[in-house]
Amino acid sequence: MVTSDFLSQFTLPVLIRILMAMILGGLIGFERGRHGRAAGLRTHILVCVGSAMTALTGVFGAEALGGGDPFRISAQVVSGIGFLGVGMILVRNRTLITGLTTAAGLWATATIGIAVGYGFYAGAIISAVLCVAVFTVLGHIEEKKKSVTNLYLEISNTSDTGSIVREIRALLNYDVTVNVTSPKSNCAEHLGVLLLVKTFAIPEEKVLEIEKINGVAFVVEECNA
Question: Which DSSP helix (H) or strand (E) runs through 32?
Fold first, then answer.
């Protein structure tokens, strides 16, 4: 049975933990949103606050029932957050996988929220700081080491595809892997081509020159992080 004393003592910790979950989730979400990821500030805050509330609900339920397992509800969050994470992962042309880092960040944010809900502040704060560090510092290092740029273009003159690709190879002067795909514009006369260029960044003037090639409809530089 929940007593009035328990409710009065429980209200302040609930407020503190929910606000802390909001702040820690916001730190991670701000970094993701700053890089234009689909799951940004609001998503990470909601995941962290929701996870914290799950843990708090377990504690409250155990007290209300006079016993029980306060961790049972939270255990479902760890596995259930995977469904949200899957929505962040995209597979393109069977060769490129994007969104894995964001999906892992959502899972980590959920566990941070659970830790806050149970009052494990030290672990939650340390984990949040490390997550932000991984996204910023290690992410920058990883991008430099990866040094692969994805360039998508659509060709309107499909009969001249071979010569267009050869002209692009000569223009870029980099190691280029070519993957043919369906056109994003859904134009039946067009052909989609995804180029994996082994360089950290393609100069803007090179992209503009590719756009001017006869038969190239448009060019889009993609990110696969």
Answer: helix 4-34
